[in-house]
Amino acid sequence: MKYAVHTPYTPMQKLRGAIGALVSIILLGTLFFIVFEEMPFLDALYMTVITISTVGYGEVQPLHLYGKVFVITLILASLAIGAFLASVIGQLALEGQLQAIFGRKKMENKIRKLKNHIIIAGYGRVGRQVAQEFQKKRVPYVVIEAEEQAVRQLIDEGILFVEGNATDDEVLRKAGIETAGTLVSTLPDEAHNVYLTLTARDINKNLKIIARADFDDGEKKLVRAGADHVVSPHILGGQRMALASLRPNVVDFMQMTALGEEGLSIEEVVIPSGCKLSGLTLVESKLKQEYGVTIVGIKQSEHRMIITPGPNTVLNEGDVLVIIGPTEKLEQLTKDLG
Asked: Does residue 31 fall inside a structural domain?
């Protein structure tokens, strides 16, 4: 034998039910006064409304005995429905507030637990593109945004964020600036980017700062303020358009490696302390044979980048290898070295 499973009503269903009951009792009362007390429609409606609202203005006309009994029943029923309606409205208001409060607390706790994460200042067009790339790579990040519309979008997308001005010290601390590994400043105002760079560098000396600049003067100021890398979206966009016109295949290859298309990626890998590769030459490391990857650059400590290093280039602890190869092979190499 099967039993029906009762599903609890949602607050909105309860609200609709309470409103429906209230409308029904108004119609019922009006109909009663028209039929049994022979009142005109407007008087019957008026009598019903003052009865269920208990305002006590007095009867439109003397009631019969059954009319008085009906009024008593109508008052008791309306009080019950009114109390139920008030409780439902209170429940909806309370749940909405509690959800907002608990949602913020939960997000704050998640952000507080992050270490060596990335902070994105600004969720405009550039900031959204940065966030999408981090999302693909499953990199932990937090967004700082002050604009209401962008904040609503962050909520809808379930992204960790702190609402406020990114140049505010307290907002930066809420985003975990003291334990973050990288700050990406994509604010549209260049002066704000400079001020944010100065502030962030003062709070966290070891922070890697990547800042947006729209003009050459801004790039110089950001470097002086402490930015490790300065990126100009306009300049990069123009260069890429020119390159796409002159060397479209090169652009296609760059896009494939940068975005991980066709299973091909470009990554940077740091040789950690105590790594077996330390002290070996490239040919001795057998990275090509074992992982099927190609070393296209090596950034040695305190030195410039070596482009297309030769087979006899010696690898040392702390060197950063720029590698192109199949995505799964690069992931395996990173895991083995880590």
From this structure: yes
